[in-house]
Prior knowledge:
A hairpin with a 2-residue loop joins strand 6 and strand 7 (219-226). 25% of the residues lie in helices and 24% in strands. 21% of the residues are buried. By secondary structure, the chain is α+β, with helices and mostly antiparallel strands.
Amino acid sequence: MEYKDYYETLGVARDASQDEIKRSYRKMARRYHPDVSKETDAAERFTAVQEAYEVLRDPEKRAAYDRLGSDWQPGQEFRPPPGWEAESEFAGGTGATGFSDFFGALFGGRSPFGHAQGDVRGFDIRGQDHFAHIEITLEQAYSGTSHTVRLQTPEVDAQGRVQVKTRTLNVRVPAGVTEGQQIRLAGQGAPGIGKGRRGDLYLEIGIKPHRLFRADDRDIYFALAISPWEAALGAKLTVPTLGGDVELKIPAGAQSGKKLRLKGRGLPGTPPGDQYVVLRVVVPPANTAQAKELYREMERVMAFDPRART
Length: 310
């Protein structure tokens, strides 16, 4: 997708005040309004001006946009930087439609810091709910952990310019959290207006990929390589779990893909998850004369056809 320079679209400097942005928007909106303008691209230009103003008029969206820096050029190929959502506050829909893919990639139809929640009583308005994404390891999800979250909160100074302040929270992540689960921190969102109470902060949990295990909600999956004789004759093997090694009995005649269940060995919860051990039979290479002869002997003795229909 193409990068959009919203400051250039509105014809203002990057350090323009909110009043300067508003004045420029009104001027350009009148110029390109489809009901007034006779220019052939008036509707397209009007939409671009609306999109730019949607971002720059809002201190929160403007602060998030400014984080991209000023080195991008209009029309340049753009992808959101890695970790764009990680530990940045996000909230619900803006109601804006018809904007570019660039706008959708950055904000997903959402403000990157929050939005007022209604709940209006006179002039008392509840504060914004803020959202953030954090990533932890699977071991931390199993045992619980403390996580430091640094969040950026924009404020408008006396000159109408956006200043971003960083706040730090030390959050306790309980044992047994799962991918996509949200932790609610009451009163840690934006302050309310008047006597309105503060909004809440919601932390969405992401779990990093693990070299051994795969999590599916609270269940854990582990692939176990076994030899043909262990599969055919059965065996007792030591397998890892998040809570430590355990002994697992492989039944005789096991096939690749068979799942063996270790009850309660998944992530903690009520009830806890299970661990499923998925067997994978690994065939030894026939890389010596003796090994080849053993395979030929098996072929003669067993007369086994894996493609025979039963």
